From TrEMBL:
TM region(s), chain numbering: none
Matches recorded under SUPFAM superfamilies: FAD/NAD(P)-binding domain (SSF51905)
PANTHER family reported in the protein's UniProt record: GLYCEROL 3-PHOSPHATE OXIDASE (PTHR42720:SF1), GLYCEROL-3-PHOSPHATE DEHYDROGENASE (PTHR42720)
InterPro entries in UniProt: BFD-like_2Fe2S-bd_dom, BFD-like_2Fe2S-bd_dom_sf, FAD-dep_OxRdtase, FAD/NAD-bd_sf, G3P_Oxidase/Oxidoreductase
Basic and acidic residues bias: start-end ranges: 344-360
Region (Disordered): 344-389, 584-609
The protein, known as: FAD-dependent oxidoreductase
Organism (species): Candidatus Coprovicinus avistercoris
Residue span(s) of domain FAD dependent oxidoreductase: 96-464
Residues covered by the BFD-like [2Fe-2S]-binding domain: 513-566
Amino acid sequence: MDADVNALKSMVEKHVTEQYPDAALSVSIDWRGIATVSGQCSSYQQLVDVGHSVAKLPGIRNVVSEMHVKGMELPHRDYSSLIEQGHAAGELANCDVVVVGLGIVGAACARELARYNLNIIAIDIAEDIATGASKANNGGVHHAGGVKPGTLKAKLSVQGNRMWDRLAEELGFDFDRCGDLLYIEDPDDMDELADEFKTAVRNGDYKPKLIDGEQCFEIEPKLADYGKKPVMGLWLPSQGRVHTYEVAVALAENAAQNGVRVMLETGACDIVTAPVKHPTHDGECEVVGVLTNRGLIRCRYVVNAAGLYSDDLSAMSGDKSFSIHGRRGTIAIIDKAKKPMFDHLTGRMNPEKKQGRDPNSKGGGMEFTPSRNILIGPSAHEVPNKEDTRTTKEDLDWIWNINENPEVSQADIIRVFSGVRPADFSEDFQVNSSEICHRFINAGAIQSPGVGSSPAIAQLVTKLIRDDAAQSGEEIERNAAFNPYRKRPVRFRELSHDEQDALVSQHPEYGRIVCRCEQITEGEVIEALHSPVVPHSIDGIKRRCRCGMGRCQGGFCQERVLEIIARELGETWCEIPLHGPGSEVLRRDTRPNAHTSHNGQGELEGVTQ
């Protein structure tokens, strides 16, 4: 074993020295094939390139970066104050499983685990569900044509894709199985189209089909309206789309309905371990609990769904097996007044279209959401700061260059936002049981196609826990009371006039429009505020009801939403944040004796108009 590790170390050191002679780097390899690279790089891009280059070498399973950049201080999250708070708070709770992170992956894991007789707590450092990468992406439930065969990504992408129709039916969220039509206009581009087809077939994607130009027009007649002249195409019917944040909320609410305790503003800051006791586990330690800023949660298992900080959480357990490098993507949202060009996800393949794209990213293109907003992007830009969600001119210029809709101009943009993908250097998912820390389960490094894969990731995580318990002679039994169904929230704008009249006669609050752009009623906001996972912020209501997602971006409705939140939750207006502590919209009450509530007629009582 030592000889093999030493030979591997020599090979990696030689590679690094030859490929990056200007970098001062050293390498260590552990028995698993995890390479830890230390030393100085000349730029952040070189650091990323070194990580990718080493991860591709034979025998290397993944790369941990302890590299730094000359003249640059790389940001790291400081957990010391959270640890102090946690120790001061004492013991918070006791359970079987703690799920850390409530993006779409963590929420899916919490719900899937709720199918079994387990005491589960799901925590997130943020004030709401889906505040990280799960709120800032294009919501693609991807086909498998763009995923490297043989990876865990490919396997879970195909498995997860097949689960979405049932999941949408059970949880009552919008899901559109739109399909993806890729076409070429130049026969010289046929190789690229054929490669995508072969990849889809090899990965086991659902019925990919090479088609001729006539068949392209049959699937998407509007190609002719825009003067497109396809000569060949690839039809991938498995492609779908969702609002990722809506799905994450639905998963978390259903998990809560089935007994999962959801704790928000509860951040994991350390993993408490003890010497391993399990006779069949060769690790160095085992999970005892999770220290949070609110105190210690004792548990048997930890599910690491911490997104951009999943590498930190894994390191807290004593297992440094991967590093996350953030890859920012910027997306422009177009006003719904501009209609999508096509009914399906449709795009032309050619070599020029890929120029400037990150070869490790699926980003870049034109799509539209289930609510029919056109999306342009995302870009792909490596960033040293995991919190760097800026929208820059460089990224905006790049995504605008891929706009293919002649009827859309920059004046039609209603919002530009960025998210950061949690990529590791292997560019694969890390869903596994730690070999170092017993009962620590990773569900990290989940980037695209993570949305579509999330139900399958949750199933794999659950299997890992059940299999581990079985090794100890314990059978984790199914929860006979588990209810997979969540009532779909009222969508007033989708009802017929007769249905609207009947609803308003019983519940007048549904007759008062709060958000004009999206036609959202007061009743819908109230319903969200009495859901199993209560939002406490304006953005939390936005993710559930779409208040503020229209052309005016909350210009008219934000004050009404703030008033309703305060009234329903028994808080003052000045306590209501936009997106969490420190983002309160109003600083102080200038008329503390005035009664500031709506009288149901759109006017403020006690306030001079």
